[in-house]
Amino acid sequence: MNMLQGCRSVFEFEKLNKISEGTYGIVYRARDKKSGEIVALKKVKMNVGRKEDCLEYGFPISSLREINILLSFDHPSIVNVKEVVMDDHDSVYMVMEYMEHDLKWLMESMKQPFSTSEVKCLMLQLLEGVKYLHDNWVLHRDLKTSNLLLNNQGVLKICDFGMSRQYGSPLKPYTSLVVTLWYRAPELLLGAKKYSTAVDMWSVGCIMAELLAKKPLFSGTTEVDQIDKIFKTLGTPTETIWPGLSELPGAKANFAKQPYNLLRKRFPAASFTGSPVLSESGFDLLNRLLTYDPEKRITVDDALNHYWFHEVPLPKSKDFMPTFPPQHARNK
Ligand SMILES: Nc1ncnc2c1ncn2[C@@H]1O[C@H](COP(=O)(O)OP(=O)(O)OP(=O)(O)O)[C@@H](O)[C@H]1O
């Protein structure tokens, strides 16, 4: 924690309002009293989770990971942590660039879903951020729409690195209790202890579907319900399409047999019912992101090079993305 010595005080910032309170932190909108700049301050909550997940004096290891990663990373699609500050009770705050919206709250307030060219603009920025992470051997492990920030310049940034971790080759056993249920890959739901970048790509698939439809793709209430919802839409996987499936701890459970992939029904090529329309190549990308076998699931490099981004309608330029009214408080 040497980096905290000599850091500025939080009293150099004027808190304007609370934006959100999550598991690991409270996020405020604040003004830097010296420069007048508007920033986001994330206060680290002490003693969160199990005792062994915190340092001796209660500082959560997940927050330490998040601070380390965000201070060392520099990419336009990753939220920038400018500095770390403290108050007189030794509470630690991350000072981040302020982003007007997160995509979860934004979609809840929008009347219409994003257009296809807007979704392409957002997806490209998301994939560029994920590529930077994977190229730097980091798994985010909690990609979801509330962790995607958008500003009024059309710039998307990934935030919340509390679950992220460095990975290496060969794969090591990790905990499977990661990734918010709705965005959690099937290998995690079935208890895989060895997993890799493909878990983030599944989440990206769920996010793409949600951006198109303006509603979550698989909104399970429990792990079993989540698996059930996935199988009902994509069909129950078999050892043939996913070699190694039967060795996963959860694969022994008796799941309903549903032999077909019904995803196209939810994203048809033409629609008279208001379902989101998706071209052949857009559907191909979505299907490749939502591929059961993590070994066959599309990688971030291949997703970035996918033909969908080159066919009309072309991705909207950030400068032409719509702007939205402010959402200063996004209480969960
Ligand atoms: N830089 C920022 N600018 C504006 N809003 C932000 C910023 N960072 C985070 N937020 C808002 O705060 C919310 C929570 O942030 P974050 O996910 O980092 O906190 P958390 O405590 O780890 O939450 P969770 O319980 O979801 O893990 C985000 O969904 C977003 O609405």
Using only C-alpha atoms, the radius of gyration works out to: 20 Å
Number of helices: 9
Q: Provide the helix percentage.
A: 25-40%
Reading the helices and strands in chain order gives: EEEHEEEHHEEEEHHHHHH
- Uncertain runs are none
Oligomer: single chain
Kindly report the spatial arrangement of strands forming the biggest sheet.
Answer: 1-2-3-5-4
What can you tell me about this protein's structure?
By secondary structure, the protein is of the alpha+beta class. The chain folds into 2 domains: 13-97, Phosphorylase Kinase, domain 1 (2-Layer Sandwich), CATH 3.30.200; 101-320, Transferase(Phosphotransferase) domain 1 (Transferase(Phosphotransferase), domain 1), CATH 1.10.510. It has 9 helices and 10 strands. The strands form 3 sheets. A 5-stranded antiparallel β-sheet has the order 1-2-3-5-4, with helices on one face. A 3-stranded antiparallel β-sheet has the order 6-8-9. Strand 1 and strand 2 (25-32) form a beta hairpin. The longest helix is centred in the middle third of the chain and has 20 residues, at 116-135. It binds adenosine-5'-triphosphate. Adenosine-5'-triphosphate (ATP) is lined by residues 19-20, 22-25, 27, 40, 42, 79, 96-99, 102, 146-147, 149, 159-160, 162, 330.
